[in-house]
Each structure stands twice: as C-alpha cells, then as structure tokens.
Write a structure and sequence with these properties.
It is a single chain. Helix 1 packs across helix 3 and helix 2 packs across helix 3. The chain has a three-stranded antiparallel sheet. The longest helix is centred in the N-terminal third of the chain and has 16 residues. By secondary structure, the protein is of the alpha+beta class. It starts with 6 loop residues before the first helix and ends with a strand. The protein has one domain: Arc Repressor Mutant, subunit A.
Length: 77
Amino acid sequence: MVVAPSRRETELILVTIQEMYNSNKTTFHPGDIAEILRKKNQPLGLWLIRAGCAQLTEQGVINLNSKTSLYELAKAK
C-alpha cells in the first residue's frame, strides 16, 4: 500500500520550498525540508516529504536534476 501525503502536507512542503527559494537556496534535498520543518515544530517523515516532492515533480512545480540529485523550483512558463 502506498500512502501519499495529504493536500495539507503537500502544501506545507511547497511553502517550505518557496521559503528556501526566497532565502536564495535554489536547490535542495528532501532532508533540507525535513530540517526546516523540525525547527518549526512541524515535523514530517522523510518518506512523506519524498512522496510530496514526487507529486510536485509530476505536477511540474519542481524538477529533479538527475546528475546532482537536487530538486529546484521549475522555471515559470
């Protein structure tokens, strides 16, 4: 059974990505998101963050660089 992140969890992941981007951190690993959420006392499991990143990648919101294994926000079209 595959458990996908809820809409709220996916939105929390996206907001965290946007906060990192606004702080000039343009590439990230899922662990970076986990660290920020722990500091905010809103922890999510790493497996859930990875699933959220996969969803956001499928939606075209973020991209995964296969050479560096880093995610980044997708370029606006």
